[in-house]
Task: structure prediction
Amino acid sequence: MPGIYIHIPFCRQACHYCNFHFSVSQKRRPEFVQALKKEISLQKDFLKTGNKGKVLLDTLYFGGGTPSLLEISELNEILSELFKFYELSPDTEVTLEANPDDLSAEKLAVLRDTPVNRLSIGIQSFYEADLKYMNRSHNAEQAEKVLHDAKKAGFKNITADLIYGTPGMSDKQWIENIMKLITRDIPHISAYSLTVEKKTALEVFIRKGKAAPVDEEQSARQFEILCEITTKYGYEHYEISNFGKPGFFSRHNLSYWSGVPYLGLGPSAHSYSDGLRRWNVANTCAYIDKLQNGQLPPFEQEHLDKDQQYNEYVMTALRTMWGVEKKLVKNRFGEDYFNRMKQSAGKHLNSGMLEETQSHLKITQKGRFFADGIASDLFI
Result:
């Protein structure tokens, strides 16, 4: 079944490391909600495959930006428009990304009465120094409190984000960050190495000597610490950056990695169906203005050729614990692609970065931190 991603492009303040599309001005937020509703209506046929009824969704994901900035009334208004064209089953995964400072106990209680059944909370760190370095909008106390309040409100499916490799974060502090989630029985952890993206505030600060640079050795070491601890406490490392208890893997992400069709709504949102990728303009004002005139926002699109589809499959599959399915490569892409893949994989098999089973080609524990580079070596 397909999914929908909705991009909410507003934030209280700009995190220094972030290169996603967002705005710290919320002046046009009411207009945005109305524009989003219009886009939902105009895109109602994107996921249809001949059936005349409503499309049943497997996943619905509110990302951003900071979707938790929405008032519950705004969220319900968006959902009401969606329900004109789509259906949710009792099993549909409905995720809301959230910052700790947005989720008061009162808001969580009301949110629990909406279809949202999964929270993705951007903790990043429980230490003030890290949060200030990243320019996060919440503090350590709020990070601690939100986990308690979310569980008290009745949310069981919770994932929390952490960032490692932050300059000044000791291994001891990193271990404490991980353990705070584990001891609170948070069933899913997404953890990312701090990266310096071009044109971000962090890149500028480091270049001008106003912020400490990222230490690659620290990042690699803390990644290994993360893998060891989560394995010890029963989490499955099912994707390079994702660790889940059984039954709590992100179905939204699994759909992306499996090539399931999805519709992206909102500025900068991506859509995919049968080799066609489309992405909206990354400009909130341009997005709103077009929809106010009853037109779809500006977008670009591309039809992925066979090489591109193969490369994408290899990239996403190698990042998962299942790896690349050899039979699938042969059947979908052909013997030539399979043989070239095996040839390119040779040096990584010899170095112990990859392992081969009867059915799959997989990243080893040794190669996990280098997964993207290994995948690129296998590209056509």
User: Anything to note?
Assistant: The longest strand covers residues 86-98. The chain has a mean pLDDT of 96. Residues 216-232 form the longest helix (17 residues).
